[in-house]
Amino acid sequence: EAGVTQFPSHSVIEKGQTVTLRCDPISGHDNLYWYRRVMGKEIKFLLHFVKESKQDESGMPNNRFLAERTGGTYSTLKVQPAELEDSGVYFCASSQAGLEQFFGPGTRLTVL
Amino acid sequence: GEDVEQSLFLSVREGDSSVINCTYTDSSSTYLYWYKQEPGAGLQLLTYIFSNMDMKQDQRLTVLLNKKDKHLSLRIADTQTGDSAIYFCAESEGYSTLTFGKGTMLLVSP
Predict the structure, then answer these.
(1) Are strands B9-13 and B104-109 parallel, antiparallel or unpaired?
(2) Number of C-alpha atoms within 13 angstroms, CB side, residue B10?
(3) Residues of A with CB below 8 A from B42's CB?
């Protein structure tokens, strides 16, 4: 069974540009989470989907970030326009009804 | 202050025991976790402990929880070079979002 996949693995963009990150959860997992780790800091929660609905988006830093999960399958996280402080590693995780969240390898975003 | 704190670096020799420590502030935490991240990979759940337990053992891993002091530790017995990774402590209230520490980089030398 495939794990959580994320695309791209690495993205380098200039300040002001737009970037879209994609996460494919484990098939059948209703819960999908986005987290972010900024260099040298802790991994921080961004938001949580249950199927296609946003259950909790309290961690989204500002309105430059837009997450979607159309059809309750894969999810995208768009940053528009990107700023320098958005650089970091963006992790996606999925879970079914249970305790364990399964993490993807992350997308490393570098904003120049 | 931060919700979950960990030391940033630990270096041990192969065969020794490693102890990684973590403190947390949220008294309503119900689950406490240890995740492992190897280079280029995602976070892998190693083990977790429910907040009403004080110890959990799983093969080479021993988790100790001092709820009064809000202190969690992970002991790895007979540490191997393959254990070199970043270890994250995390907590949650129920089956919900995770709050992580900054991670402890464990370096195991031959």
Answers:
(1) parallel
(2) 25
(3) 3-4, 91, 93, 102-106
